TrEMBL record:
Protein name per its UniProtKB record: 5-methyltetrahydropteroyltriglutamate--homocysteine methyltransferase
Lineage: Bacteria, Pseudomonadati, Pseudomonadota, Gammaproteobacteria, Methylococcales
InterPro entries on file: Cbl-indep_Met_Synth_N, Cobalamin-indep_Met_synthase, Met_Synth_C/arc, UROD/MetE-like_sf
GO BP: L-methionine biosynthetic process; methylation
Cofactor info, note text: Binds 2 Zn(2+) ions per subunit.
Cofactor: Zn(2+)
UniProt organism field: Methylovulum psychrotolerans
Length: 756
């Protein structure tokens, strides 16, 4: 027998139904009853879709209104005091967004990246005196719903140690001291699920692929020895990397089964087979849950055969991780070029691949046709002329260190830039995008569908840009942007204009909450056929005497926020992107744009889970940024933006990027993220975000001044820029005007205090 199962499924619906209903609920246009109805319909539809692949177990508890880490915090009763004592959906959304249906503002929970993915989670907050109580029925209600449909549930629970590792503290104490209070609630969860007839529970502990301190490794033995008394079988799920030195220890934990990721870390299989006992279930993650390429099924079958030769216990097959990170259904992509479409697999197709693997193991003759199709897709992709561009490959091969060096160090460049730009102390700017109004979106959509001529489209975009420039001048901002009216997404927009990229019509993936992205697919060598942004920036600069920032997405972010080809090292693709962007940077400078911002929001996101592998990643990631940014004169100012990242452990690499100005998220963290820049004595200029654009709350001038005073104490007023946390694309103009007016007022107050 071979069991097939899934670790998790996308949440928002094939047509993003949950997204639109959530946003309607937040606007007060529908109630909780309608939101619950839509959510239940999505869950049921997704369960039926998974059942079509004959899964033996279907995950439950993977659905969320906003974030599964936040769900876990609420289930454990961990609600920070500022949100009050009441539970329920409104409290949940206050924690997530800083606001619920009542409109009252709160400081939302901090948000950051889920390991090395583009998914954002809400950071739990714990105190030394923290108490835990089972405070939500969500998991149990949804388990009953799935059972009512006649399917076998495998509830998914975020493990106690991973949840605690991800939590932040506001005082100095050892989070592990909370384990004795936390574990009884996990025991209650498992016993209650057992009472519902559940036989297997998937407990996710992805921190097991990190380099954990000894105390945390030892805590796993304590935790799982105590949880083994629960009357259910536990499948311990690890993913995103290898168990490494912890392999033997993890294989001996008192759990009924272990899931390992053999896509991201195939090298760990031998060590796991050397250590796992045959009375345990071994779940092989053979289908890529993070990327959209078809599985090499023959290679997967070879792996399974090798495992069977050494492991005589029960074998399960699954995706490498939750399918949260991929779109739902490839069949919706009717416009894709058929040859390339044959190389791809979305969530439904990945589960079908699982079914084919089991069929090939149990009835080989019945799987021959599907295996032949899969093998042909692998062969045609490798041989396709669409993938390879000899000129691009030659340019990467010819790279040398001189392309990654500015002519002069920052101390000299800074003086030239100040003479050229003539900015005041505490210069104000924004991160790039301004509100995307329905009119802007309609014009873009009509142009794409051929309902609007190119001349009319350009006219409408120029009107939007002119409006944005006038608004910024009226607000009194010092460095302006063109507003990015023409851009659908900061990655998709560039990918549409670069060779080697492919786009879907319905390939939506959740980034956070109701925020969805449609990641491009990098299928071949990347080059820039023509300028991408110059006409819009040049037009905007012609409208004002103030300096205009050209806005680009950096090579590492384009890489990390795309589905990337897996037939060459990621570093090679990053260098191709860097060379393409280098041409764009040079064209912007020639067009008279004095400041160029190259966003690297996903820079930290690409760090491998194991710190021993960080140096290799950071070396090529920094090099890629410097290749694209270093071909300008000393007087041209290079900015970069990074959001929702911890910088302490990579601050030297960030400094090595040598951007003249870096802007970062700091408002939700109350300027805590600046500590990294202080201890390191970061040499260049910094714009710590003072306005949380991911919350609908409008900050006060006093709050921004307080944040900036903290920042000034830490990094010095002469290095300080003033800006929001991130782009303003998702906000409304009336809120933006008020917030930016207060931000400019804050700058004026600070200038008056230093006499400028």
């Amino acid at each position: 027998m071979v069991t097939i199962h899934n670790l998790g499924f996308p949440r928002l619906g094939a047509d993003r139904e949950l997204k639109f209903t959530l946003e309607s609920y937040w606007r007060g246009e529908c109630g909780q009853e309608e939101l619950s109805r839509v959510a239940a319909a999505i869950r049921e539809r997704h369960w039926h879709l998974q059942a079509e692949s004959s899964l033996d177990f279907i995950p439950v508890g993977d659905f969320s209104y906003y974030d599964h880490v936040l769900d876990t915090s609420v289930m454990l009763g961990v609600i920070p005091e500022r949100f009050g004592t009441a539970s329920g959906l409104d409290t949940y959304f206050r924690m997530a967004r800083g606001q619920a249906a009542d409109g009252k503002p709160y400081r939302a929970c901090e948000m950051t990246k889920w390991f090395d993915s583009n998914y954002h989670y809400l950071v739990p907050e714990v105190q030394p005196e923290q108490r835990f109580t089972l405070s939500s029925d969500k998991l149990f209600v949804e388990t009953a719903e799935l059972q009512g449909l006649g399917y076998s549930p495998k509830p998914v629970v975020l493990g106690p140690l991973t949840w605690l590792w991800l939590a932040k503290t506001t005082s100095d104490f050892d989070k592990l001291d909370l384990i004795d209070r936390l574990l009884p609630v996990y025991g209650d969860i498992l016993r209650r699920l057992a009472g519902q007839g559940v036989t297997w529970v998937q407990i996710d502990e992805p921190i097991l692929v990190l380099d954990l301190p000894p105390a945390w490794i030892n805590a796993f033995e304590t935790v799982y020895h105590r949880l083994q008394s629960a009357p259910v079988k536990v499948l311990l799920a690890t993913y995103f990397g290898d168990l490494g030195a912890q392999t033997s220890f993890v294989c001996k934990l008192p759990v009924a089964g272990l899931h390992i990721d053999l896509v991201r870390a195939p090298e760990q299989l031998t060590a796991v087979l050397d250590n796992i006992a045959s009375h345990k279930v071994l779940s092989l993650g053979l289908i890529d849950g993070r990327n959209i390429w078809r599985t090499d099924l023959n290679a997967a079958l070879n792996t399974i055969t090798a495992v069977r030769g050494r492991f005589h216990g029960e074998l399960w097959l699954a995706p490498s991780c939750s399918l949260l990170h991929v779109p739902i259904d490839l069949e919706a992509e009717t416009a894709l070029e058929p040859g390339i479409k044959a190389w791809l697999a979305f969530a439904r197709q990945k589960l079908a691949e699982l079914a084919t693997l089991r069929l090939a193991l149990t009835k080989p003759e019945a799987a021959e046709a599907e295996l032949a199709v899969a093998a042909n897709a692998q062969q045609t992709r490798r041989a396709s002329a669409l993938i390879h561009n000899p000129a691009v490959q030659a340019a990467v091969a010819a790279l040398n260190g001189s392309l990654a060096q500015r002519a002069q160090p920052f101390a000299i460049r800074r003086g030239q830039q100040r003479l050229k730009l003539k900015l005041p102390d505490y210069p104000t700017t924004t991160i790039g995008s301004f509100p995307q109004t329905p009119e802007i979106r309609k014009a873009r959509a009509d142009f794409k569908r051929g309902l609007l001529s190119e001349a009319d489209y350009i006219d409408q975009m120029e009107q939007a840009i002119a409006f944005c420039v006038r608004e910024q001048e009226a607000l009194g901002l010092d460095v302006l942007v063109h507003g990015e009216a023409e851009r659908n997404d900061m990655v998709e927009y560039f990918g549409e204009q670069l060779a080697g990229f492919l786009f879907t019509a319905h390939g939506w993936v959740q980034s956070y909450g109701s925020r969805c992205v449609k990641p491009p697919i990098i299928y071949g060598d990347v080059s820039r056929p023509r300028a991408m942004t110059v006409r819009w920036s040049q037009y905007a600069q012609a409208l004002t005497d103030k300096p205009m920032k050209g806005m680009l997405t950096g090579p590492v972010t384009l890489l990390n926020w795309s589905f990337v080809r897996d037939d060459q090292p990621r570093s090679a693709t990053a260098y191709q992107l860097a060379l393409a962007l280098r041409e764009e940077v040079a064209d912007l400078e020639r067009a008279g744009i004095p400041i160029i911002q190259i966003d690297e929001a996903a820079f930290r996101e690409g760090l491998p889970p194991k710190q021993s592998r960080w140096p290799a990643y950071l070396e090529w990631a920094v090099q890629a940024f410097r290749i694209c940014s270093s071909g300008v004169s000393d007087s041209t100012q290079i900015h970069t933006h990074m959001c929702y990242s911890a910088f302490n452990d990579i601050i030297a690499a960030i400094a090595d990027m040598d951007a003249d100005v870096i802007t970062i998220e700091t408002s939700r963290s109350n300027m805590e993220l600046l500590e990294a820049f202080i201890g390191f004595d970061y040499p260049n200029e910094i714009g710590p975000g003072v306005y949380d654009i991911h919350s609908p709350n409008i900050p006060s001038t006093e709050d921004m001044i307080a944040l900036l005073e903290k920042a000034g104490e830490r990094i010095g007023a002469d290095k300080l820029w003033i800006n929001p946390d991130c782009g303003l694309k998702t906000r409304q103009w009336q809120d933006v005007r008020t917030s930016l007016t207060r931000m400019v007022e804050a700058a004026k107050v600070l200038r008056s205090r230093v006499g400028t």
